[in-house]
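Good day; I would like, with your permission, to put a structural problem before you. I would ask you to consider whether the tokens describe a fold that such a sequence might reasonably adopt. The full record is reproduced below for your convenience:
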Amino acid sequence: MHGDLLQRIANVEALMAERLYLGRGRLDRQLRAARGRLPRRVLRQARELVEAREMLANPATARTVKANRIAATCDLMERALHAVPEGKYRRRYWSARAGMAALNVLAVIALLAVVLWWRGHA
């Protein structure tokens, strides 16, 4: 039973990395990065998964985990993640990277113009 819950939490973590284009990492970091991408209500409830994973790691506290509640939270997360359009955040990620590259090029050109003006070559 507890192995199934751990597997479901791991599946939610993998699905978050895939659908929201977040790096694979710890679930708590992914939840912080997912702010603005998922509804607040879903993220608030998803924090229970982090606590449940920690509790399931210890056999003494694993007995106190409410399996039905954790399974319902996993279902909620899976529904919310499947509602995200495929590739939405991947496109946003790459457009942000292109924008940053353009901004860096403009900053270098501006710096070069300031140095030329300062040296009296402009």
